[in-house]
Design a protein that fits this description.
The complex is a heterodimer of chains A (530) and B (367).
Chain A: H1 2-33, H2 40-50, E1 57-63, E2 70-76, H3 82-94, H4 108-114, E3 121-124, H5 127-135, E4 139-143, E5 149-152, H6 182-192, E6 198-205, E7 211-218, H7 224-236, H8 245-252, E8 264-266, H9 269-278, E9 281-285, E10 291-294, H10 298-301, H11 312-341, H12 349-359, H13 366-386, H14 392-409, H15 415-429, H16 434-472, E11 474-475, E12 478-479
Antiparallel strand pairs in A: 1-2, 2-4, 3-5, 4-5, 6-7, 7-9, 8-10, 9-10, 11-12
Helix pairs in contact in A: 6-9, 11-15, 11-16, 13-14, 13-15, 13-16
Chain B: H1 10-21, H2 29-37, H3 41-65, H4 71-79, H5 81-113, H6 120-137, H7 139-164, H8 181-186, H9 188-192, H10 201-204, H11 214-247, H12 251-258, H13 269-299, H14 307-324, H15 334-366
Helix pairs in contact in B: 1-7, 1-11, 1-13, 2-3, 2-11, 3-11, 3-15, 4-5, 5-6, 5-13, 5-14, 5-15, 6-13, 6-14, 7-11, 7-13, 12-13, 13-14
Classes of the chains: A alpha+beta (530), B mainly alpha (367).
């Protein structure tokens, strides 16, 4: 059967590809074969036609200095820096180059080398190159009599400036976050990592959108297998419009349906820098303020930048408490259900009595009570995100007073259940990764159902199922639970605990870095004491 | 992407062996052996442990002679197609019975201590399905899971032993070996049966990156449960005395009940301990489940793409064998009926195979 399935799949894929490439051909048929001609009017008209005669296409025709040679520039006013075009392209061509020649003819090389003061330019003749360049904010200079033009870089994107990270705040760490402009983002990384081996591999994604995408890694550290794996996956992505970072990540992973995040997203440049210096790969997309880091493992999602700005002892305690929070967030209501309905004897008798007393007026079984409160909590969270900030306070009043106090007074839920659900909610937000916190919220309900059916046995079976699932998951070839295994004991130093930085002499070996040694000399008394 | 990460590491020879040896027997092996050897039961267990170390050496030798094959394939290679298949059939029967009995005893204990109203069928079935899920995911996943549960299992058992020590009365352990040698020796073979899991190496050796240290990790994997069994037995005898111990059905769980944790939040510690012990049984069931699957696959020359049907198909088999036996206290005696098979396979068949293979290889090399 599988063979037959494969054949069917490949036939289907071929048909699909054919269909896609047909559509593409139709769109680009005229562009691909076309070349610039010597007639500037002709060129301008064609380009305008291809670009649908949009209103923001700007052209300017002029005579080259002191001659009657005609030239023209064409660019998109909303993308290009007009000041720059006037100062460094049009002005030198009309005025300043007059000193250079008093002859009637000038060759293309002379114009290119001595008459334009703009920084980056390249010769171009094919229309598809030229259109892509103009669409990215570059300017085309076309000159009468030459069947080629000059594509001059003049991009200027409007966007916000570098601000503070909003999703991943830090107490002592740097307060810079990525913005939507790829160039600025790459700059933020380069500034922190001045190794010439830092490699920025540029790609384009989206048949129509053609968004810029950068694969960032450190040559000499990164595992070549991982890199080629990622590049291969990027190449197979065939998307029409623009992709968001998250879509991109989901299209790249081997387990797109996994509930757990198979790649890490971050808005912090310092996180990206430490990731690539460990041997991981970052993918930056133009227009997206977050970055994909791959591969990822569960302990990586539990790390916070603040772990590295504290002493190792404090950082370890905080990190361990986060793991406790992870368990509470997924299991606390389930354990409560298991203990109250199956094993009341596990608790001290006083506590059991007080639970029974508070529950005496509640009309529902524990599981219904818990599911009800869980649902209300999810509603509160969702409403808190959606509500405009001006009325945001309403949620806290409604949530705190009405749901908490009044529901208990009305006898619909027991006060202990309110405490349990509140602690659970708190815990789910102390998990540094939002996606992982979301997973614990999802996992809570199956655990509650297992607990109400099988008690503590159900909870432990649920834990075992999750463990098997987690261990079998792989993110870009790296097992999801990786540092917590016997494979590379030196990786334990930065897993559930955080060992002193001087002791982390090796890069994480689960990532198979080419250069394993991170810290050469044992330097306990240096500034890296922590 | 197939990388070298898909292989087990040498340390996992220890974790996998230990967790597959620590089985449902940990609940009541003290009682079984004390019945035979009295207050010297721990000596019997020590001797049984040494016997399993020797047999384990034979396993290791056999596995290392064929580093690319696992036991069922080695078996066919060494013993020939016909005898090999007969032996494999015996191993398969034994292992399937072992899994079913473990499930049954486990469910029985669970019903007694945690879930008195839940039907035993659902407990057996649920555990079998989860174990099947682990086997379905493969050896590498089993290794990873065991890596994570190993420290918890160790901490629990060591804590039980240490917390019981203040309650032990050394008088119960005396006289040591006084006019009791015969009974001690009688207890050796039943003790040896507690260590069945050591043969797991024959199945995972060909999937590991083996170094010179592998043998030490593997020996540690047998020594750790041996020390745990010995101290657990000694402590149980010290706390209850042989007379009382013989009346207990699951002495380890009763031992948990005896422990008074200073300033405790949880009053009934045994319920809590039982939860962690679910994990212990689970790990050993999974390893035997895996071995049964491999045996059947080679025995009937099943193609690897149909492996999943074997894995899931075994669940009803385990379920019906477990349910076929009547519930109640009698089920606890069944393991002793299967045990001669284990003794023959472990002490006779595997060493013979190892020696045959050794000479076969040497002959092949000299030619």
């Amino acid at each position: 059967m599988p063979e037959r399935g494969n054949i069917m799949a490949s036939i289907f894929r071929k048909l699909l590809n054919k269909k896609q490439s047909n559509a593409e051909n139709r769109d680009n048929a005229d562009i691909e074969k076309l070349q610039l001609s010597g007639n500037i009017q002709d060129n301008l008209n064609r380009l305008k036609n291809i670009m649908s005669n949009s209103g923001d296409i700007k052209t300017r025709e002029f005579n080259l200095a002191g001659s009657n040679m005609k030239a023209a520039v064409i660019f998109i006013g909303t993308l290009a820096n007009e000041d720059m075009i006037h100062q460094h392209i049009i002005r030198p061509l009309i005025m300043e180059s007059a000193i250079l020649f008093h002859k009637n003819q000038v060759n293309f090389e002379e114009i290119k080398n001595s008459m334009i003061s703009a920084g980056n330019l390249k010769e171009a003749a094919a229309f598809d190159d030229i259109v892509l360049g103009i669409m990215s904010g570059d300017t085309l200079l076309t000159i009468q009599g030459f069947a080629k033009g000059l594509l001059i870089e003049s991009k200027e994107y409007q966007g916000r400036t570098v601000g503070e990270p909003s999703l991943e705040p830090s107490v002592k760490g740097p307060q810079e976050a990525f913005v939507e402009i790829l160039k600025i983002n790459i700059g933020l990384i380069r500034r922190r990592f001045r190794d010439p081996n830092l490699c920025i591999d540029m790609h384009r994604i989206g048949r129509r959108a053609k968004a810029d995408l950068a694969i960032v890694f450190v040559k000499g550290i990164v595992d070549e297998n991982l890199l080629s794996n990622i590049k291969r996956k990027l190449d197979t992505i065939d998307i029409d419009g623009s992709a968001t970072t998250i879509q991109l990540g989901q299209m790249m992973t081997e387990r797109p349906n996994s509930v757990l995040p198979m790649y890490q997203t971050t808005e912090r440049p310092d996180k990206v820098v430490s990731a690539i210096s460990e041997g991981r790969v970052a993918i930056l997309l133009d227009g997206a303020p977050n970055t994909i880091i791959a591969p990822v493992t569960l302990p990586m999602l539990m790390q916070s930048p603040d772990d590295y700005f504290e002493g190792w002892f404090g950082a370890t305690i905080i990190r361990l408490s986060r793991y406790v929070a992870l368990f509470i967030s997924a299991l606390f209501p389930a354990l409560y259900i298991a203990i109250t309905s199956f094993h009341p004897g596990m608790l001290p008798s006083n506590l059991t009595l007080s639970i029974v007393r508070t529950r005496s007026g509640v009309p529902f079984p524990v599981i219904i009570e818990a599911l009800l409160m869980e649902f209300v909590l999810e509603l509160l969270l969702e409403a808190g995100i959606r509500l405009p900030r001006v009325v945001g306070q309403t949620v806290s009043i409604v949530g705190g007073l009405v749901i908490g106090q009044s529901a208990v007074q009305a006898g619909i839920v027991s006060p202990i259940m309110v405490i349990i659900i509140s602690v659970t909610a708190l815990s789910s937000f102390s998990i540094p990764s939002y996606s992982l916190g979301l997973v614990t919220r999802i996992a809570r309900v199956p655990f509650m159902i297992l607990a109400s059916a099988f008690g503590a046995f159900g909870v432990s079976m649920g834990l075992l199922i999750s463990l098997i699932y987690l261990v079998s998951l792989k993110s870009f070839g790296v097992s999801y639970m990786k540092p917590i295994s016997t494979d590379h004991p030196s990786d334990w130093k930065d897993s559930t605990i955080r060992a002193p930085l001087w002791s982390m002499k090796k890069r994480p070996q689960m990532l198979h870095p080419q250069d394993i040694i991170r810290l050469k000399r044992r330097n306990r008394s240096g500034p890296n004491e922590n | 992407m197939k990388t070298n990460t898909d292989r087990l590491n040498p340390i996992q020879a220890m974790t996998l062996t230990t967790t597959s040896i620590l089985s449902v027997e940990i609940l009541r092996s003290q009682q079984t052996i004390a019945q035979i050897a009295g207050q010297d039961a721990w000596i019997s267990i020590a001797l049984g442990g040494f016997l399993s170390l020797a047999s384990g050496m034979a396993c290791y030798l056999l596995a290392s002679l064929y580093p690319d094959k696992d036991f069922p394939e080695i078996n066919l290679d060494v013993a020939g197609k016909f005898i090999g298949r007969l032996l494999l059939l015996a191993f398969s029967v034994y292992m399937i019975l072992y899994v079913s009995l473990s499930l049954k005893i486990f469910a029985q204990a669970l019903k007694m201590f945690l879930l008195d109203r839940t039907p035993i069928q659902s407990l057996v079935l649920f555990m079998a399905i989860v174990a099947g899920y682990a086997v379905f995911k493969g050896l590498y996943t089993i290794g990873g899971v065991v890596d994570i549960i190993f420290p918890f299992v160790m901490i629990t058992i060591i804590a039980i032993i240490l917390l019981s020590i203040p309650k032990t009365n050394p008088i119960y352990l005396k006289p040591v070996m006084f006019d009791n040698t015969k009974d001690i020796l009688k207890g050796v073979l039943p003790s040896f049966q507690n260590f069945t899991g050591f043969s797991f190496i024959l199945y995972f050796f060909s999937h590991s990156d083996n170094t010179r240290s592998s043998i030490f990790w593997y020996m540690a994997g047998i020594l750790i449960p041996m020390v745990l069994y010995i101290s657990l037995t000694a402590v149980s005898i010290g706390v209850f005395g042989v007379k009382d111990l013989l009346t207990l059905i699951f002495p380890t769980l009763t031992l948990l009940k005896e422990i008074e944790f200073p300033g405790t939040f949880l009053e009934r510690l045994e319920a809590f301990g039982a939860v962690l012990w679910i994990v212990i049984v689970f790990a050993s069931v999974v390893s035997f489940y895996y071995m049964s699957t491999r045996n059947l696959v080679v025995l009937f020359s099943i193609k690897s793409k149909y492996l999943k049907y074997v894995v899931w198909g075994l669940i009803p088999v385990f379920y019906f064998i477990a349910m076929y036996q009547e519930s109640g206290i009698l089920v606890l005696e069944y393991p002793q009926r299967v045990s001669p098979l284990q003794t023959i396979l472990g002490l006779l068949v595997i060493p013979t195979l190892a020696i045959t293979a050794f000479f076969k290889k040497r002959k092949g090399r000299s030619q």
